Amino acid sequence: MTTNSASARYEGLGKAGKGSITTRSGVLSDQPYGFGTRFEGQPGTNPEELIAAAHAACFTMATSFALAAAGHADGTLDTQCTVTLEKDGDGFAVTRSALTLNASIPGIAPEDFARIADEAKANCPISKLLNCEVTLEKSLEG
């Protein structure tokens, strides 16, 4: 078992409030977030951006390990993830996490690549965590 942690602080309430996020590792240290960074494009981060980063990283690592287990020794995986936040009743909900994978894996058959990527999407821990539609577009170079 492995555990990780992060903390958030919010000073003030509602739209006027300002928050900051810090991770145990220190990669994020007092990074600003709030209404402006979430909905108005102001500098800083927001929860959906962090989910997108986590999902892209998790899926890409899962795909890498699955490719290695299938006997592939080299390649490059580039993943983009877009998380969608939509109005849901009186609040909001994350409704979709869209993964786009561009890969270069020497010697892999396209159908093997597609199967491995689809399995990684279904089985990476962040995909399993999310309670929303998870999609995957994939392309193989070469």
UniProtKB/TrEMBL annotation:
<dbReference type="InterPro" id="IPR052707">
    <property type="entry name" value="OsmC_Ohr_Peroxiredoxin"/>
</dbReference>
<protein>
    <submittedName>
        <fullName>OsmC family peroxiredoxin</fullName>
    </submittedName>
</protein>
<dbReference type="Pfam" id="PF02566">
    <property type="entry name" value="OsmC"/>
</dbReference>
<dbReference type="InterPro" id="IPR019904">
    <property type="entry name" value="Peroxiredoxin_OsmC"/>
</dbReference>
<dbReference type="GO" id="GO:0004601">
    <property type="term" value="F:peroxidase activity"/>
</dbReference>
<dbReference type="InterPro" id="IPR036102">
    <property type="entry name" value="OsmC/Ohrsf"/>
</dbReference>
<dbReference type="GO" id="GO:0006979">
    <property type="term" value="P:response to oxidative stress"/>
</dbReference>
<dbReference type="InterPro" id="IPR003718">
    <property type="entry name" value="OsmC/Ohr_fam"/>
</dbReference>
<dbReference type="InterPro" id="IPR015946">
    <property type="entry name" value="KH_dom-like_a/b"/>
</dbReference>
